[in-house]
Specification:
The chain starts with a helix and ends in a 9-residue tail after the last helix. Helix 1 packs across helix 2 and helix 4 packs antiparallel against helix 5. The protein contains 14 helices and no strands. It is globular and about 60 Å long. It has two domains: 132 residues, MFS general substrate transporter like domains (Growth Hormone, Chain: A); 192 residues, Up-down Bundle (Growth Hormone, Chain: A), CATH 1.20.1250. It is mainly alpha-helical and 348 residues long. The chain is 83% helix and 0% strand.
Length: 348
């Protein structure tokens, strides 16, 4: 749905796609409240995935439409920080509601409130932003051979995924970054519980990573505007690799907490810079489609990371699986250093 968000928003505008995403989410809390078998839960997750892909991708595109080249990193940092801090706050709130009132229905009513607010605000307050990108496209100067608005969807896909050095480097880095997330959310709690940590300590470790990630993006996005994207991305990938390496080699709450902070810091360094880099390099006429392709690869990393780390852990053990992903992350950072053009950053 990330991919289709880009193609549809270029064809029909941003706001209709955003509204479709919110509408897809409307049944989700009620399916979870009243669902009587597993098929209802699976169906709710499918609709939630459709909504997530359409709404979050479209809000990213709208911010890129609205801000100039010198503020892309700041805008992406604010966007991603708001999203992931919202995830953390909602996890705490629903955990409290579940403990106080049970798993159903009260915690999911909070989701219904969020959907109503998102849909209502989108209808009433948001204006279409695609016109901004069209105006920017008319004044856009780009050295790329393909810097025109006549690219097909397939051409945008291949350019973003493989052919353009910077776009392809960013796409693979985004995928590896979320591969880390799939690993962390899947295997870290199992590792910590197996080491005998209390539930309280496991909760702190689970919170430290996204908290550092969310707060850090308030600063790292703006830093990428000032210092450029490339080396912040490279440093962030290596920082994540170090955090994963410490997790694999250590045993105990203290070292694991330090590793979680490093992993969150590294993720904060790369997340807004990667999105801003896509906006820097892609032409405004097909930028939304390029963002959709990037997010297709990036969020695909969640699934790849969960499957890959689970298979490796079954065969070689959890520390070996984490060490392998650390090596992949370092290699990804090296690939960005070698392949991404150093002058592809705002302002230009």
């Amino acid at each position: 749905m990330n991919y289709f968000a880009g193609t549809l928003s270029d064809r029909y505008g941003r706001k209709p796609v955003l509204l479709a995403g919110w509408l897809a989410a409307v049944p989700v809390p009620f399916m979870l409240i009243y669902g009587q078998d597993w098929a209802w839960i699976v169906g709710a997750n499918v609709l939630l995935g459709i909504s997530q892909g359409l709404t979050w991708s479209t809000t990213v595109m709208m911010k890129l439409d609205l801000v100039g080249p010198s503020l892309r990193g700041l805008a992406m940092g604010l966007n991603e920080a708001a999203g992931y801090l919202g995830v953390a706050a909602t996890a705490l709130a629903t955990g409290y509601l579940a403990s106080a009132y049970g798993l159903r229905p009260v915690p999911f009513l909070l989701g219904a409130v969020f959907i109503a607010l998102g849909l209502g605000l989108s209808v009433v307050t948001l204006r279409e932003t695609r016109g901004h990108s069209l105006v920017e496209a008319r004044a856009h100067v780009d050295a790329h051979v393909h810097a025109h608005g006549g690219l097909t969807d397939l051409q945008v896909f291949t350019l973003t995924s493989f052919r353009d050095r910077s776009l392809s480097a960013v796409s693979q880095a985004g995928m590896v970054n979320n591969l880390n997330d799939g690993l962390a959310w899947g295997l870290f709690p199992v590792l910590f519980a197996g080491a005998g940590l209390s539930l309280g300590h496991i909760g702190l470790l689970a919170a430290a990573y996204p908290a550092m990630w969310g707060v850090g993006q308030l600063f790292t996005g703006a830093a990428s505007d000032r210092w450029g994207r490339k080396w912040l991305i490279v440093a962030g990938m290596f920082t994540q690799a170090v955090g994963l390496g410490i997790t694999a080699a250590s045993h105990g709450f203290g070292p694991w907490l330090a590793a979680a902070v490093l992993l969150g810091l590294g993720t904060a360094m790369v997340y807004p810079a990667l999105l801003a880099a896509i906006g820097d390099v892609s032409h405004p006429a097909w930028r939304a489609r390029s963002v959709g392709v990037y997010r297709l690869w990036r969020d695909g990393g969640f699934a790849v990371g969960a499957l890959l780390s689970g298979l490796l852990a079954d065969v070689y053990g959890i520390p070996a699986a984490i060490a392998a992903v650390a090596a992949v992350t370092a290699a990804s950072g090296l690939l960005v250093a070698l392949r991404m053009r150093g002058n592809d950053h705002a302002p230009r």
